[in-house]
Amino acid sequence: MTLVIKRDKTALVEIYRRYSKLLFPLIQKIVGEPEIAASLLEEVFLIIWNKAHKYAEQPDNPYTWIITLARNRAVDSARRGRNSLSASQYYDDDYENRFILPRLAEGIDSITLDLAQKIKPNFEEALDKLTDAQKYVLHLAYYDGYTLNEIAGKLNIPVETVRVKIKNAVYNLRENLLME
Q1: How far apart are the first and last CA of the chain?
Q2: Out of 47, 81, 92, 169, which residue is the most buried by the measure of CB atoms under 10 Å away?
Q3: Which one is the CATH code of 1-109: 2.60.34.10, 1.10.1740.10, 1.10.3720.10, 3.40.50.2300?
């Protein structure tokens, strides 16, 4: 990422080589259509190229930053497709900086691409250990991109209950992964 910030095109090619096979299935799972996913994958790498300097303002965690960027862009596209209010919001540089670019919290678990690939087989097992309700709220929040308010409305439960369910699900998922 440091080299991409310095506008090194070979570094961007290397990031594409490393991450595209991981990002495409994630984006496709969120948007559903392979053609849209392919287009969004290209957009994600254009964002990386044009906004790598914003990465430098974050904790040093390229894997998490890139994955979150791709997820945010895919969710935004899916939301625009299902919600006329979202579709009418103008997508410009300010919008991208505010809603698409990741803002990683200090102290998050740092993960590398190698570590992510190493734990991937264990992830499904860890996910299977969650309750159906925990899996469902994680899916709604992460893949479908619903807000806490939208999930609360969909499930007809208070927003604070949704917040606690997601927090517990993430905690349990992390614990399950650490036990693997």
Answers
A1: 30
A2: 169
A3: 1.10.1740.10
